[in-house]
Amino acid sequence: MADPFANSKSKLAWADKRFADLQREIDNFHQLYPCEEVVEPHPNKPGHQVRKIRLTQTVPSDIAHITAEIVGNLRSALDAAGYSIALASGKGDPKSSAFPFAGSVNGMASQLSGRCKDIPSNIQSLFCGFQPYPGGDDLLWALNEICNTEKHKIVIPVGAGAFPMGASAHGTGFFEMPQPHVWNREKNEMVLITLGPGAEFNYHFGFRLFIAFGEIKVVSGSEVLRTLHKIGYKVNSVVVAIDAEARRLGIVK
């Protein structure tokens, strides 16, 4: 007998396959080392100089497109599971069988009575247990937020995820370093050190650069690949739970 959740599992498998493509695109971008060190006069302190690291290239559009494709398939896997349940329960042409994402816990009721009305009530209760709303399962809710974000806003330049892995400086004269070093998202740069007039310093900074999600609640600034893997694992567990409960209830065989 055909697996009623084959469509959901196929979408999960495709998303998993695209993870490798996304990893390759990100690795290729990192290998370019798209940053350079710049020296500028301090805007408020005459004679002082500010040394920064600045992004020199934009994130390739392929990274945003693949990310959007992955999250699209993950969300579609949830919707496909709902559709399969509705069909198996006897709905000939279920038009309201999407997985519910709500803006709050209070919004779940309207989602269930609208987007999910063709799904059996006991499965609707299961959906509620997943808490797909902010303040419930934030990671699951973030999946829908990412899907609803314009592609060019999904990811932010690689420098936005910079953080110090160690720093040292020695020499003579005045110097100051930010504590902590913070990437400026608007300027795509990070101040490394400020030197006073005549100061001579040797310094070393080690930091990792990664591509992060943009202004998306819950996941903003978090590393794209690591977060997507967590969301993918979450969605897979939800599909498995829906499958198991549908079989336990006898909705599917």
Give the SSE string.
HEEHHHHHEEEEEEH
SS-based class? alpha+beta
- The helical percent reads 40-55%
Total domain count: 1
Average pLDDT score: 89
What does this structure look like?
With 253 residues, this protein is an alpha+beta fold. The chain has one domain. The protein is built from seven helices and eight strands; from the N terminus they run H-E-E-H-H-H-H-H-E-E-E-E-E-E-H. A hairpin with a 7-residue loop joins strand 1 (35-41) and strand 2 (49-55). The longest helix has 28 residues, at 61-88. It starts with 5 loop residues before the first helix and ends in a 5-residue tail after the last helix.
Topology:
Elements (H helix, E strand, L loop, with lengths): L5 H26 L3 E7 L7 E7 L5 H28 L19 H7 L6 H9 L8 H10 L3 H4 E2 L6 E10 L2 E2 L12 E7 L4 E9 L3 E2 L10 H25 L5
Antiparallel strand pairs: 1-2, 2-6, 3-8, 4-7, 5-6
Helix pairs in contact: 1-2, 1-7, 2-5, 2-7
Brief rundown of the structure:
This protein is of the alpha+beta class. It has helices at 6-31, 61-88, 108-114, 121-129, 138-147, 151-154, 224-248, and strands at residues 35-41, 49-55, 155-156, 163-172, 175-176, 189-195, 200-208, 212-213.
